[in-house]
Request: fold
Amino acid sequence: MDPLAVGALLSDPAAWSITHVTRTGSTNADLAASRAPHGRVLIAEEQMTGRGRSGRDWFCPEGAGLMFSVVLRIPQIPADRRGWVGAVLGLAIVRAFDRIGAAGADLKWPNDVLISGRKCAGILGEVADDALIVGAGINVSLQATELPRQDATSLLLSGGSDRLDREALLAAILDEFGVLLNRWSGAKGDIDRSGLRSDYLTSCSTIGSRVRLILPGGRQHLATAVDVGPDGALVVEDAEGRRSYSAADVVHLRPDR
Ligand code: BTN
Reply:
């Protein structure tokens, strides 16, 4: 993976400074410790202690994924509105998949990227002092035996070898992310005024589906997902009415088939 080649494909090369390492612990952790400026991107071919959401880990064989993190310093977005950053990157990835020919991707609340119902990418947003660090792990050329779980997929498995140019993919993601970030910061982080909540809801296949929420302690709630509120919480409805769950309240979200 050549960071200069990614830079050459960007619509706005000045917006991002792209760095690359062969191996590290976690690109999110590295950038969180770095005090790097807004727009720094770190790509790794392999992570030894890759972090996933809810304290889980993230593993991908060397060179088979696109794993990167970005530093954002956006003072226009108040701290209590920054929780949407993972969803905004997720939306950028869905749009970038479309651009590289992997059409039909969508989002599972809060920010998994699915292709045909299978997880192809995960996103982790974290706060580091006044910076936001957001990272994505995308399964690019993993074979079926290399997938971390049965309900996962890769760009290769979901459609073939025409979509495996990681440099073009990262450039498309950063282009899309830059456009969405401008809208978001232009609206001072207001997810509705920026139009981003509405775009997110359009791309989120969780909405309208029957879900099984696995909650802390093993409790479960079966309901229909009906909305994602301005606070990012999933709103579900059952015979007893509506209730909201924040991402931190939910251990797993599964389809209820
Ligand atoms: C998830 O649990 O779905 C989120 C996975 C996020 C993984 C990416 S890989 C690049 C970045 N660095 C990390 O340690 N994690 C994120």
Notes: The chain has five helices and twelve strands. Residues 26-28, 47, 50-53, 56, 58, 67-69, 112, 122-124, 135-137 surround biotin (CB under 6 Å).
